[in-house]
Amino acid sequence: MEPPVVPENGPPAVSLCVLTKRGDFVRASHGRRYAAPGFNLQARKRALGEAAGIRIGFTCSRKVGNAVARNRAKRRLREIARQVLPDLGRDGWDYVLVGRNDTTASLPFDQLLADLRRALKKVHG
Question: How far is the C-alpha of 63 from the C-alpha of 104, rounded, in Å?
Fold first, then answer.
């Protein structure tokens, strides 16, 4: 894994790792949850020594639509996570964003960003 990039005038960037193993998704599904209009957030605090950094997973079932719709929804989820998690995500946590039928791909992008900020505050609150 590459070391985090250090901006000129700030702290090191937070490393975001993508979840790929089914077990990680299952463990996150048993953690805390928040249902936003555009997606569902599942989050869990990892055990000590399990992994470092913030880990994020994305999933969209066939209920979201055909492959084109699912990929569009996942692209939008990846982008909101890229923008919000370095600021509001916590080190040592796993997050899974689950796309919702029709709404993930169609809601205004600003609303998705606001929903993720609100969801993270609720999950950590």
Answer: 12
Cα-based distances in Å from 7 to 11, 53, 90, 91, 96? 7, 18, 19, 19, 27
Strand ranges (E), the chain: 16-18, 32-35, 39-45, 54-59, 93-99
Show me where the domains of the chain are located: 16-124
Give burial (CB, 10 Å; 0-12/13-18/19+) of 82.
exposed
- Which two three-digit tokens encode residue 76? 């939008």
> What is the amino acid identity at position 100?
R
CATH says 16-124 is which class? Answer: alpha beta
122 and 93 in contact (C-beta within 8 Å)? Answer: no
pTM: 0.85
**pLDDT-flagged residues of the chain (< 50):** 5-7, 10-11
Helix (H) or strand (E) holding 22: helix 22-29
Task: Report pLDDT for 50.
Answer: 84
Structure tokens that stand for 30 in this block = 């048993």
